Amino acid sequence: MRSGNICDNGQNNAVISHLFTMKLDLHPPTDALLDKLPGGCHDHSQYFKLPPGQEHYHLLAHLASQLHDSLIVDIGTFLGYSALALSGGSNKVLSLDIIDLKPDGLQLPDSVECKIGNMLEDDTLFPLTATLAVLDVNPHDGLKERTVVEQLIGRKWNGTLVCDDIHLNDGMRSFWDWAKQLPEVDALDVTNVGHCTGTGIIDFRSQHFHTDCFHTD
Ligand SMILES: C[S@@+](CC[C@H](N)C(=O)[O-])C[C@H]1O[C@@H](n2cnc3c(N)ncnc32)[C@H](O)[C@@H]1O
Q1: Hey, which of 94, 136, 148, 164 would you mutate to test ligand 1's pocket, going by the most ligand atoms within 8 Å of its Cβ?
Q2: What residues line ligand 1, using a CB cutoff of 6 Å?
Q3: Centroid of ligand 1 to alpha carbon of 215 (angstroms)
Q4: Is 16 contained in some domain?
Q5: Where are the beta strands (DSSP E) in 117-198?
Q6: How far is the CA of 76 from the centre of ligand 1 (A)?
Q7: Portion of the chain with pLDDT greater than 70, in percent
Q8: Domain extent for 142
Q9: What is the C-alpha end-to-end distance of the chain, expressed in Å?
Q10: Who's near 188: CB < 8 A, 6+ residues apart?
């Protein structure tokens, strides 16, 4: 049983906190996924391939690889890279954006459904059956992020949310400070295995990720 909030000081006993104090062997995006990256002016593949601690795509691919027959929500499709990292296996990915910016060359797998819509205005776009979600909407002001977390708490979602860019600016740092003190969730800074601009995991009291999902040397 877990109790209390996860703090960034590692002095708690929550499941996900324990996961990230271990030396992680994150599953990188597979070659099959890398083959789907677009070329030309939309070639951002160098970011996709950067290691954990610089970019978060390895972390996303790794978390998704621990799930089976699950729904994953990707909030902020942009060029489709996070959706691609989350795809593969038997999971389905629902990727939401307010505008379609995906490049022509990007081949998203059939397991990825892209939908245009604004979750801030219609929270029902986010199915509560989702196990894992990634939140990366810009401009990052910390206010949109807070609204999404409040919506998910209000709807009693019990999944796990990965938040990108939690250290990007004052607004995002303030959002993260707010999230850490929420009694309804556990919040853990995983920047060391995520994006150098800050990656946080907010666990809405789910039991989807367990220590035995992760590998140690
Ligand atoms: C930083 S990009 C996402 C990058 C993407 N997740 C990736 O890793 O490749 C941010 C995206 O959020 C989208 N966005 C902004 N506000 C949004 C909202 N309310 N709902 C969904 N998407 C939104 C923007 O249109 C933009 O495409």
Answers
A1: 136
A2: 75-79, 81-82, 96-99, 101, 118-120, 136-138, 144
A3: 31
A4: no
A5: 132-135, 160-164, 186-189
A6: 3
A7: 77
A8: 21-213
A9: 26
A10: 6, 8, 14, 16, 17, 20, 200, 201, 203
CATH value at residue 141: 3.40.50.150
Q: What is the pLDDT of residues 47-96, one digit of tens each?
A: 888 888 999 998 998 899 889 999 999 999 998 989 999 997 899 999 99
**Number of domains forming the structure of the chain:** 1
| Region 166-179 average pLDDT | 98
Closest ligand 1 atom number to CA of residue 137: 12
Question: Helix, strand or coil for residue 178?
Answer: helix
Residue 73 forms part of a structural domain: yes
The 10s digit of each residue's pLDDT in 111-160 is: 999 999 999 999 999 999 999 999 999 999 999 999 999 999 999 999 99
pLDDT at 25: 55
Could you tell me if residue 98 is inside a domain? yes
Sheet holding 160-164, edge to edge: 112-116, 92-97, 71-75, 132-135, 160-164, 199-203, 186-189
> Is 5 part of any domain?
no
**The tokens of 135 are what?**
């939140």
